[in-house]
Design goal:
The protein is an alpha+beta fold. It is built from one helix and four strands, in the order ββββα. It has a four-stranded antiparallel β-sheet. The longest helix is centred in the last third of the chain and has 12 residues, at about 50-60.
């Protein structure tokens, strides 16, 4: 698994019936994110520490 080949793409169980979602894949030290409607457009990556900080910010409603 490298930044160029994310594995295990998945989207939130809360958005299984939605078409406008993002998917998250695993990379060696972090995560990759892509648009579920346009997978061929590529993806962006975040290191493990960046991803953890993002998830914490979402869980604590920092973007609300």
């Amino acid at each position: 698994m490298t930044a160029h080949h994310p594995e295990g793409w998945r989207k939130s169980s809360r958005s299984q019936h939605q078409t406008a979602c993002v998917e998250v894949g695993r990379i060696a030290d972090g995560a990759a994110v892509r648009d579920s409607k346009d997978r061929s457009a590529g993806f962006v990556t975040a290191s493990g520490s960046q991803w953890r900080a993002f998830v914490t910010a979402v869980k604590t409603d920092r973007f609300g």
